[in-house]
TrEMBL record:
DNA damage among keywords: no
Transmembrane region(s): none
Annotated InterPro entries: ArsR-like_HTH (IPR011991), HTH_ArsR_DNA-bd_dom (IPR001845), HTH_MarR-typ (IPR000835), Metal_resp_trans_reg (IPR051011), WH-like_DNA-bd_sf (IPR036388), WH_DNA-bd_sf (IPR036390)
Domain HTH arsR-type positions: 27-126
Protein name as catalogued: Helix-turn-helix transcriptional regulator
UniProt cross-references to PANTHER family, sorted A to Z: ARSENICAL RESISTANCE OPERON REPRESSOR ARSR-RELATED, HTH-TYPE TRANSCRIPTIONAL REPRESSOR CZRA
Key words of the record: DNA-binding, Transcription, Transcription regulation
Domain of life: Bacteria
Organism encoding this protein: Kitasatospora acidiphila
Family matches, as Pfam families: MarR_2
Key word Nuclease present: no
Recorded GO MF terms: DNA binding; DNA-binding transcription factor activity
């Protein structure tokens, strides 16, 4: 059990090889903490909605995000502040409007796996 830390070495495994594979599969504890922090961004429906909107439609302004998500502008601003600090989005001034852009390539595949809303085609008068 070459990967088992010394403080756990006294415990008896059922399958030593599987224990080492599991430890290798977990990887670096600091990296796990980092990913847990990244996933915490997605744990709130409001944050996830804002992040999906910016990912799929950005660059986008706070007012438009509030309209799209149904969340108040002040709450969207708070969410964006957290997403900026985490590095998931960046802000760029466009005249008097600040637009937010998705900047988390590590989260892109995960967000892309969430199916978007199916929008029915517009019916035209015949």
């Amino acid at each position: 059990m070459h990967l088992v830390p010394d403080e756990r070495a006294h415990r008896r495994p059922i399958d030593e090889h599987t224990v080492c594979e599991a430890i290798a599969g977990i990887g670096d504890p600091e990296a796990v903490r980092g990913w847990a922090d990244r996933f915490s961004l997605l744990a709130d429906p409001g944050r996830l909605s804002v992040l999906l909107a910016v990912h799929r439609a950005g660059p986008i302004a706070v007012t438009d995000l509030a309209l799209a998500t149904g969340i108040s502008e002040s709450t969207v601003s708070q969410i964006l502040r957290l997403l900026r600090v985490s590095g998931a989005v960046t802000a760029a001034k466009d005249g008097r409007v600040v637009r937010y852009r998705f900047t988390a390539p590590d989260l892109a595949p995960l967000l892309a796996s969430i199916p978007p809303l199916e929008i029915p085609p517009l019916e035209h008068d015949a």
